[in-house]
Design goal:
This is L-lactate dehydrogenase complex protein LldF. The protein is of the alpha/beta class. Among the domains are: 274 residues, 3-Layer(aba) Sandwich (Rossmann fold); 64 residues, no CATH class. It contains 23 helices and 12 strands. The strands form 3 sheets. Strands 1-10-7-4-2-3 form a 6-stranded parallel β-sheet, sandwiched between helices. α3 crosses α12 and α16 runs parallel beside α19. The N terminus is likely disordered.
Length: 499
């Protein structure tokens, strides 16, 4: 392994151990342009996000203390990040005392090696998986496949993505870009290749699709000796892990196998078990629009004779400590993966998740991915600009992450990183504007010049295509003609020197 180039800024160095599935993708504007042309996907997204938004709004409105809960969740996560080193060591002690084995992984490569070795030690050639963003982030499935181990996704949406050789496009609903007809075709074509086939008379009725998935997965649940999960929360004072879900597949993966391996980002730590009381209220309401999750699984180490008897926890850094070192950017680590910000984002609703080039799409992905992966690639350096800064994401965030402020912070970083001895046309334009606005006499002369230009286009009302670097801007919109008279001149004409 080659050491990173220490002469380059940390955010632009190649990230050792960071996954490369999305590397080489075009910048967000290019990918978004292609996504905008996919009318079926746009229709699916508009319908799904609208439904989830309405459900969330209804259950949040039931609570008079919703804003107090948000502030409590924010305070708990802030404290956890401040005391992260202490809490992680406490978690290791309590989890180990309860019978679990705790492993530490600096990056994706180390985490994958740990998990592959643990699975190989069991002699098993397959695993069943609970939906996990952390394992997607490190591309664990690909690492297991390279080692000759089959990894079966058991979450319905993840199953659809896996069978369709697709990529997830939403944090909560990875197959949100698919409709029922597409799911039916995927099940009919692919289920038989990897297990029990779909019924010959399968329709796109949701009940029939869910039944086909249950029958397909059941044999895998009953056969698998190893389960792999992530965790929504890790509790420091008890050594417990928590997974919340809606389908029950997670409960099957967490209880039936003999060995359970959980890959957990270090930011998932909560100080105390009592802290769960807040998060088990804000998370389901923000994510699925439910008052509580249908399945909340909490386990602590090993219970003799009940559930997995060989329990492993892999605590994953993978550049989270780099994010923690940024006084502004670290707030992204408060994220509890509810996806509320995706469901209200006007940009995400129209482009979908694939355009973000990451397993973390939407507003949270636009601030988290460039910090985890750096900004050396076209897609990563463009993500902080994948927003209109409308602020809707902050309004719905259950832990009050100020995503717009972090986006602006990261935009500044991207601009600073590409500064060179020769200023860009944009930089020259800004310097010229700063010089002009610094003296009212210069501004007045510029306004009078603009007024003369405006008179030339008085009948047309707008200017056509602009030259040079301004052409992309004018190619998508009309450039309004400057007014024939500035406000300053109008005031002088009407009021004389009474300024």
């Amino acid at each position: 392994m080659t050491a990173p180039d220490q002469t380059r800024p940390p955010s632009t160095r190649p990230r050792i151990g960071v996954t490369d599935t999305f590397m080489g993708m075009p910048s967000f504007p290019e990918a978004a342009r292609d996504a905008l042309g996919q009318t079926t996907q746009r229709r699916n997204l508009a319908h799904a996000t609208k439904t989830i938004r309405e459900k969330r709004a209804a259950v949040v409105a039931e609570l008079d203390d919703w804003e107090d809960l948000r502030r409590a969740a924010e305070a708990i996560k802030k404290r956890a990040l401040i005391d992260l080193d202490v809490l992680l060591e406490q978690f290791e002690r309590t989890a180990t005392a309860a019978g679990a084995t705790v492993h530490w992984a600096r990056d994706a490569e180390e985490a994958n090696r740990i998990v592959v070795d643990l699975v190989r030690a069991t002699g098993s050639s397959e695993v069943v998986k609970v939906k996990s963003m952390a394992t997607q982030e490190i591309e664990l499935n690909e690492a297991l496949e390279a080692a000759g181990i089959d990894a079966w996704e058991t979450d319905l949406a993840e199953l659809i993505v896996q069978l369709g050789d697709d990529l997830p496009s939403h944090i909560l609903v990875p197959a949100i870009h698919r409709n029922r007809s597409e799911v039916r075709d995927i099940f009919a074509a692919r289920m038989g290749d990897v297990g029990r086939p779909a019924p010959d008379d399968l329709t796109d009725d949701p009940r029939r699709l869910a039944e086909a998935a249950r029958l397909h997965l059941r044999e895998k649940f009953l056969r698998a000796k190893v389960g792999i999960s992530g965790a929504n929360f890790a509790v420091a004072d008890t050594g417990s892990l928590v997974v919340v879900e809606s389908e029950g597949n997670g409960r099957m993966c967490l209880t039936l196998p003999e060995t359970l391996i959980s890959v957990v980002g270090i930011e998932k730590i909560l100080p105390t078990f009592a802290d769960l009381e807040v998060f088990l209220q804000v998370l389901p309401r923000s994510s699925t629009g439910e008052r509580e999750n249908p399945y909340t699984s909490i386990w602590t180490g090993v219970t003799p004779g009940d559930g997995p008897q060989d329990v492993h926890i892999v605590l994953l850094d993978n550049h989270r400590t780099d994010v923690l070192a940024d006084d502004v950017g670290r707030d992204a680590l408060r994220c509890i993966r509810c996806s509320a910000c995706l469901n209200v984002c006007p940009v995400y609703e129209r482009t979908g998740g694939h355009a973000y080039g990451s397993v973390y799409p939407g507003p949270i992905g636009a601030i988290l991915t460039p910090q985890l992966r750096g900004t050396s690639s076209a897609v990563d350096k463009s993500l902080p600009f994948a927003s209109s800064l409308c602020g809707a994401c902050f309004d719905v965030c259950p832990v009050r992450i100020d995503i717009p402020s972090i986006l602006v912070h990261l935009r500044t970083r991207v601009v600073d990183e590409k500064r060179g001895p020769v200023p860009t046309p944009e930089a020259l334009g800004m310097r010229t504007a700063a010089w002009m606005f610094a003296d009212h006499r210069r501004l007045e002369r510029a306004q009078r010049l603009a007024a003369r230009v405006g008179r030339l286009f008085r009948r047309k009302g707008h200017i056509g295509a602009l030259p040079g670097p301004l052409s992309p801007w004018s190619g998508a919109r009309d450039t309004p003609a400057p007014p024939a008279e500035s406000f300053r001149d109008w005031w002088d004409r009407e009021h004389g020197d009474n300024r």
